[in-house]
Amino acid sequence: MSTNPRPLSTALATYDHTRALKSGSVVVPGYQLDFVEVTPIIAAFRRMIRTLEFDVCEMAPTTYLTALEAGVPIIAIPVFLMRRFHHGDIVCRPGSGIERPKDLEGRRVGVRAYTVSTGVWARALLQSEYGVDPDKVTWVVDDEEHVESFKLPPNVEKAEPGDSIVAMFHSGRIDAALTGPAGLGRSGAPGAGWGVAGGGWDDNNEKKQDFYQLFDNSAKVEAESYRTTKVYPLHALVAIKTEVVAKYPDLPARLIAALEESKRPFIEALRRGDAESPDLVRYGGLLEVVGPDPLPFGIEANMPSIDALLDAAVNQHILHSRPTIEQIFTG
Known about the structure:
alpha/beta, D-Maltodextrin-Binding Protein, domain 2, 2 domains, 6-stranded mixed β-sheet, 5-stranded mixed β-sheet, 11 strands
């Protein structure tokens, strides 16, 4: 029997906690991960969904759920490579008259695409914590959905070709928007020059924007939300082609173990109080809120967040029915 490692084309962003895996200092026994660099990593989601280009691919969780319902032959492992709260991502145009969350009803709000995870989480918190009916908001999008077959709900309006959320925000044609790669921090579809390595975006674009946050002191509000709900929004899970899992059934568990090992030095640096990178600064600021591991893997540790995401996807007309955990995850 051959002892040569089995090659797998793989697209993962370079985070502090994936760096050891991508450098080769951590390996998946029996496998060779051939990394394909995609900038921004969001562009890899679309390529995976539409053409199954990679064997293993990082993916936004709502993109994954939408693709799963559409029959795309992929399956996820319960590893979440990025986490963030979203109260601070909802911003309003000066002069819009929006003072509280319920004021968003009847308004036009910009988001890159309807199924983008930041938008889903923002709508979920507005509904569950503040009683906002997302169906009473007109969601204005300026990009395609990753899953081409997805049908937009009737309260979603697509921008004209060449128009953008940024332009509509400045001209007063929308009243509020999401920030970063989900909204004002970019323009157009994800592609070269759109963001920076590691899945980020051009901060300079967003710094030019004139807006105010819907929630004052959003970091405090986010911490209070977590303590009450235990929902810590999931981002960037890892999906594998189902034919690869069928061929190599030991791969999911081995990949999970390797990602845990790759994460370990990052967690140790956080606990030492190191602050030498944006990831260390960002997640270090969350330790007092979410505990000593700000990137917990596994189903049990993340069940409140998984439940919340599934509820949101059904409530927001993204999924027609709620899948089981067994249908969503392997490993």
